[in-house]
Amino acid sequence: MRASDVMTCNVISVTPDMTVRDAARVFTDNHISGVPVLDSEGHLIGVISEGDLLRRVELGTDSRQRSSWLDLFSATHEAIDYIKTHAQKVRDVMTTDVVTVTATTPLSEVASIFESRRIKRVPVMDAGQVVGIVSRANLIQALASIVEESTSDAALSDRDIRATLMGELAGRKWAFAGRNVVVKDGVVHLWGIFDSMEAVQAVRVAAESIPGVKRVDDHTEPYTVLPGI
User: Fold this and answer.
1) Alpha-carbon gap, residue 149 to 103, rounded angstroms
2) Strand-pair partners of 121
3) Are residues 17 and 55 in the same domain?
4) What is the pLDDT of residue 178?
């Protein structure tokens, strides 16, 4: 799936000259937590979110605890904090380092952006214009909307289940030699020695995703290190 498959096309935006309080009202009126900031020609110049409005002098939340190394740059950081907590215009509190995607960006890349940048939404651009927004909520909604396919006709035989599982495990670092898989009447039996419960859980997850698997029985043993080795 790509960004165009899940993005919100009805993009709500604000202008840089809008007041912070008006921007907050846009959030509450539309039940959203962030919007792009567009100039008079519709060009993206920033993003403003709830995170930009958490520390405000009006709320008494403008104070911040600093780590010792930041004290070396206290004057600059205090100035930045003052702007963020006291400025009345969106242009002064918005985030200008905006990450964007295109309509054809794979959702896997979008998810990576969310994780690496610790953000909750990205504007979708086309020819320099914002054509949509993809948020974390959009990804969750897409997941919830996937229709679960019936597995009654697609159920595999025991032999095919085992072959499919072994193929899925091939090359996985956590699925090392010393394991064995036995499939009987749709039940996957896991045998062998594993060095972590997470490895066993990963094998179980792989097995449960195969059509025809009724359950997974774990007979594995933990790997033990002998004294002096």
Assistant:
1) 27
2) 135
3) yes
4) 60
For the stretch 112-162, pLDDT in tens is 999 999 999 999 999 999 999 999 999 998 888 876 655 555 678 999 999
CA distance 17 to 216: 60
**C-alpha 98: how far from its chain's center?**
17
Please report whether residue 99 resides in a domain.
Answer: yes
152 three-class SS:
coil
Residue that the structure tokens 């959009």 belong to: 138
What CA–CA distance (Å, rounded) separates 52 from 162?
A: 52
- The CATH number that applies at residue 115 is 3.10.580.10
Q: How would residue 71 be classed by pLDDT, with cut points 50, 70 and 90?
A: low
Domain of 110 in residue numbering reads as: 3-145
Give the CATH number, domain containing residue 164: 3.30.1340.30
**Measured between alpha carbons, how far is 62 from 82 in angstroms, rounded to an integer?**
8
